[in-house]
Amino acid sequence: MKYKKKEKKLQKENITTAVCALLNSGGGLVRVQIENKDFDYRLDTLGLDIEKSLDELISNTTSKDYFDITQDGLYLNIFVKSWTTKFFLSRICSVDTGLYSRSFTSKKKASPMQVMDMMEEKSKGKRARFDQTLFFPEQINELLDRKYFHLNEKLPLSESLYMEFKDFSGASDKVRIQEAIPDYFSAFANSDGGCLIIGVDNDAKVKGCCTQCSESETKHLVEERIRKLKSIHFDYCDEGAPSYKLTITNVRDDQNKPSGFVIILKIEPFCCLTFADDPQSWIMNSDSFVSHIEDLKQLNPSEWIEMMSTKDTEGTIHGTEGKYYILAMQPED
Length: 333
Ligand SMILES: [Zn+2]
Fold this sequence. Notes:
Bound molecules: zinc ion
Number of strands: 16
Domain Schlafen AlbA-2: 159-271
Protein name: Schlafen family member 14
Number of helices: 8
Distance between the termini: 14 Å
Structural class: alpha/beta
Domain Poxin-Schlafen/Schlafen-like N-terminal: 64-127
């Protein structure tokens, strides 16, 4: 399949999405119309990027267990089997979980299997019993009480599993703050909590941020972004929203003039899951024999969690008994 770069990316996304939906809906056939008349699957294959993305979808287990691919004239037939948990996979298949966790001194996208582990651990209340004070440096409390920081002052802290510094001084700091908050909030809330400190570089030196904003604008910027995050409780849980403490402290330069702020966002461990983005996982949403890419339904965070929590004994996922989907795709889909 020879396509231009942009079309190729679209093709990869569409094929991955379609395959994900079929895996989650009892299996079926993706029938891709081939544009290039000289295409020969035996010689040209799917292309490495599509293969890689399908491999990730099945968590790098054996592709033969899930896919059979044949060419039928100007059509490529991708036969997709039903998702099963018998290979110790998560309950449903997802391209991206939309969730982060904390790993050493950075955030990490959680894989579907990690999410299963997180859900199991959280359901046993392990996270709730975790004692943060054992790991949090006491110095943080003193810093939270400070009236102001000096520009370039070195704070008595370092980055850790519970501490992340971000230096967003300079242009586009507002955009970068809004981009960072979902990922780090999700990572700390889903793990054992922690502090995101914005306006401080990797060596713990105060740099300030939001020099063009007032304190209340800065506060609003952060709180607005937090308010948009989707935090979902498991069905047995009746707790409230994730809790956090936001402290915004002035920074002064060596002439004692204002030089932006340091934002300290302390995030408590959350009982359930906080999403940075919607999960990328699809199911078939059509009763007709032949479906199209528009007929796929992307699961929202609540639906996704519900399906991830479904207990089954057979090892097969929500069997759409007797139903066999055919998904037709044109090259420019
Ligand atoms: Zn909860």
